[in-house]
């Protein structure tokens, strides 16, 4: 029986954070402080509350800042580092970490956003659907240049429409994923490759990708405005 303690967590921390640089100095975006602690700590604390204990941090820009912090952190959690010398995209970063991942099913999550979904229920959903990949989806009214996900009543995803404006209620990607190890066979070696724009659209016709709906709110720190909102909420 799978327990969350046995499942690895990959956190994607390699973004350049260009839009946030006016409010944070010389550090990678996930290390932006909220209440005196890195955003990445807040994210890891939430994930760990479900029993996860082994984390693979996929770093890029200023990755040494993340490594130095977590190598010297007094924690019962285990941190492993997969470091990119050039940006490989979200799927490319996961592919690069393949040999570090020990579990057959693993959680992957963006390192610059937090959505407090019930991860235990998310795993149950993934196993019930026998999916290769499951994506947490949040409801958004009147999508404003967000990627929209189309899905059937049973949760199977049938299509993606990136950066589209609509006046309808839609479901958008929350940046939280569960993958089976089989996923690696769909990601090319040593190539810049995106989850959102390359991997997921290519998997739709295989009918192996599902969406887990949540009512929780997504907070990200990608811009100064959203960072300020996250600080207010998470404080």
Provide a brief overview of the structure.
With 235 residues, this protein is of the alpha/beta class.
Structure description:
This protein has 235 residues and is an alpha/beta fold. The chain has a single domain, classed as Spore Coat Polysaccharide Biosynthesis Protein SpsA, Chain A, CATH 3.90.550. Helix content is 25%, strand content 31%. It has six helices and 13 strands. The protein has helices at residues 39-48, 63-71, 89-96, 119-129, 195-203, 224-234, and strands at residues 9-13, 33-34, 37-38, 54-59, 78-83, 105-110, 113-115, 133-141, 146-151, 157-164, 169-180, 209-214, 218-220. Strands 1, 4, 5, 6, 8, 9, 10, 11 and 12 form a nine-stranded mixed sheet that branches. Strands 2-3 form a two-stranded antiparallel sheet. Strand 4, helix 2 (63-71) and strand 5 form a beta-alpha-beta unit. Helix 3 (89-96) packs across helix 5. The longest helix is centred in the middle third of the chain and has 11 residues, at 119-129. The N and C termini lie far apart (37 Å). The mean pLDDT is 90.
Topology overview:
Elements: E1 9-13, E2 33-34, E3 37-38, H1 39-48, E4 54-59, H2 63-71, E5 78-83, H3 89-96, E6 105-110, E7 113-115, H4 119-129, E8 133-141, E9 146-151, E10 157-164, E11 169-180, H5 195-203, E12 209-214, E13 218-220, H6 224-234
Parallel strand pairs: 1-4, 1-6, 4-5, 8-12
Antiparallel strand pairs: 2-3, 6-11, 7-13, 8-11, 9-10, 9-11
Helix pairs in contact: 3-5
Features:
25% helix; single chain; 31% strand; 6 helices; alpha/beta; 235 residues; Spore Coat Polysaccharide Biosynthesis Protein SpsA, Chain A
């Amino acid at each position: 029986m799978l327990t969350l303690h046995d499942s690895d967590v990959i956190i994607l921390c390699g973004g350049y954070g260009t839009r946030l640089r006016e409010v944070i100095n010389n550090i990678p975006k996930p290390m932006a402080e909220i209440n005196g602690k890195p955003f990445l700590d807040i994210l890891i604390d939430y994930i760990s509350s479900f029993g996860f204990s082994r984390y693979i941090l996929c770093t890029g820009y200023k990755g040494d800042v993340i490594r130095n912090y977590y190598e010297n952190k007094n924690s019962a959690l285990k941190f492993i580092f997969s470091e990119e010398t050039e940006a490989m995209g979200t799927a490319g970063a996961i592919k690069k970490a393949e040999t570090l991942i020990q579990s057959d099913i693993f959680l992957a999550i963006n390192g610059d956003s937090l959505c407090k979904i019930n991860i235990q229920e998310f795993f149950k959903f993934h196993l019930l659907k026998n999916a290769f990949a499951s994506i947490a989806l949040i409801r958004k009214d009147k999508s404003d240049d967000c990627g929209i996900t189309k899905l059937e009543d049973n949760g199977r995803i049938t299509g993606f429409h990136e950066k589209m404006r609509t006046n309808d209620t839609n479901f958008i990607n929350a940046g939280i994923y569960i993958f089976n190890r089989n996923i690696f066979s769909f990601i090319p070696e040593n190539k810049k490759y995106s989850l959102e724009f390359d991997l997921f659209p290519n998997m739709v016709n295989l009918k192996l990708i599902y969406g887990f709906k949540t009512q929780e709110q997504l907070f990200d720190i990608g811009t100064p405005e959203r960072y300020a909102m996250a600080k207010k909420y998470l404080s």
